[in-house]
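yo, SRPBCC family protein is done. seq:
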Amino acid sequence: MKIQEKIIINGTKENVWNVISDIKNSSNFIRGIEKVEILDQTENSLKGLKWKETRILYGKSAVETMWITDVKEYESYSTRAESHGAIYISNFVLNEKDGMTELSMNFFSESITLGAKLLSIMFFLFAGATKKAFKEDLTDIKAAVEKQSSSL
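structure:
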């Protein structure tokens, strides 16, 4: 399954980066995230940061362990999770123009086990709800950035 969502934010890349890279506090500004528990943190880079994220999915709490696999500061970062026989990759990309920043979120899942491959046939049923959750996350990020920018 592949999903891509984008949003235009009234703020610089640096402002947007400061919000999206604040994984530890993301439950304070993304409504769909209930709790974040940092498991492993590197000193000067996001790369290697590992955490457990509890969020509401399909009306229920779900916990996933995620980690950051690639970082280009103020430009992009990628996360990975492995669960239920599948690999999940998310990529966040920033593009700034005239003081506005486009934040793109790209999501890809790949079924690895036979069970996950059989279930992947039904993933299309969940694609709409997943896309809606991503849109809500991006809207919450936009609100957090623009609130911070207006208070400066």
